[in-house]
Amino acid sequence: MTVQELPGAAPYRPTPPPAWKPRTDPAPLLPDPEPYRVLGTDAAAGFAPELLRRLYTELVRGRRYNTQATALTKQGRLAVYPSSTGQEACEVAAALALEDRDWLFPSYRDTLAAVARGLDPVQALTLLRGDWHTGYDPREHRVAPLSTPLATQLPHAVGLAHAARLKGDDVVALAMVGDGGTSEGDFHEALNFAAVWQAPVVFLVQNNGFAISVPLAKQTAAPSLAHKAVGYGMPGRLVDGNDAPAVHQVLSEAVARARRGGGPTLVEAVTYRIDAHTNADDATRYRGDGEVEAWRAHDPIRLLEREMTDRGLLDEDGVRQAAEDAETMAARLRERMNADARLDPMDLFAHVYAEQTAQLREQAAQLRAELDAEGDV
């Protein structure tokens, strides 16, 4: 005899009791049905010319940075480089949407965002050169170490943002991740903690279509990645990731919302990785040239250039000046990267913990002894 069959037992209810109700109204959290756009719309007229010029300059500089870093891999100066060509609007907007006191948590593909935030271009490549674990002081520009493991930077961003709020610091964390990273457990854990704690953090998903060779359709059946926000109780925003002003506006609004105590936001920027996953990848094995060319027609630099030209904010001299500035940056990068770095093996132990553990001290002493022995040979 079951509980339901006991005399006087209440009838079994296959649905929750009437007292159940949603904890959060899902309607305001849902993203727009189409990616938000600014370029080519009336909204473009509302953007300050100074901001558009800054975005354009950084986009051109970023494109040249990508091509130069890719060339350095072919010359043996970099071990690997994951290019963000085609995604420059996301990279630049993420950096410019933050205040100096905020923190950026990049993935391995987000060197351009770190450079746009002020990081030395060579230091941003040091990890990919194989010289240091990170290559820069994260505190200087408030840029966390470039994260090679997928999505592990997201819980770190939530923890920092939550701690800042507990301390009363007016700080927002912006964490960047690719569409492949949304298939990792760290992504879901980070969103859940962020929403429960109402942490001042913004998640930017750069949906470039592929997790290496795996297309998005084989990763998720959701209407969009932005829809995943609703399941955790935060707003989801969908934006054209090649529309630099649109990405900047959406991220700026999300940052402002987080700063005033409104909690986290998940932003999906729909973009495309024009180059291969890295220099070790053969993208022709999983996508056709026609697909790539279709996205080249939606190039973020050309889109912004056309808008600014039509509004009289950019002429041939402006285009030439931006290109010359970018070329100067690339020349300096080549010169510095072509010089062999002088490395101290003992640096392996310098930035692991604030205070070295007994095990690290033991390992450091062992390495020092081996180096001294080699010097005596």
Automatic annotation (TrEMBL):
Keywords: Oxidoreductase, Pyruvate, Thiamine pyrophosphate
Dehydrogenase E1 component domain: residues covered: 68-326
Protein name in UniProt: Pyruvate dehydrogenase (Acetyl-transferring) E1 component subunit alpha
Alphabetized SUPFAM superfamilies for the sequence: Thiamin diphosphate-binding fold (THDP-binding)
Species of provenance: Streptomyces lavendulocolor
Matching NCBIfam families: PDH_E1_alph_x
Annotated segments matching region Disordered: 1-31
Cofactor dependency: thiamine diphosphate
TM helices/strands, residue ranges: none
